[in-house]
């Protein structure tokens, strides 16, 4: 891609990957795969992502 803006359209899919990283220690990221639909977005992965305290 050449840096030109791209309008999202139904049928496109991509990942959303928020995360937290502690320099020199560790990190964690939650990855959601989503698809653009005619009415918004649909989350494709269905496993639960609860917060787990270790």
Present the secondary structure layout.
Layout: E1 13-16, E2 19-22, E3 26-29, E4 32-37, E5 40-43
Antiparallel strand pairs: 1-4, 2-3, 4-5
Describe this structure in words.
With 54 residues, this protein is mainly beta. The protein has strands at residues 13-16, 19-22, 26-29, 32-37, 40-43. A 3-stranded antiparallel beta sheet has the order 1-4-5, with no helix packed on it. The protein has a two-stranded antiparallel sheet with strand order 2-3. The radius of gyration is 15 Å and the shape is flat. The relative contact order is 0.24.
Largest sheet properties: 3 strands, antiparallel
Q: Mean pLDDT, rounded to whole units?
A: 89
How many extended strands?
Answer: 5
The largest sheet has its strands arranged as: 1-4-5
Low-confidence parts: none
How much helical structure, as a percent, in the residues? under 10%
Q: Quickly give the structural class.
A: mainly beta
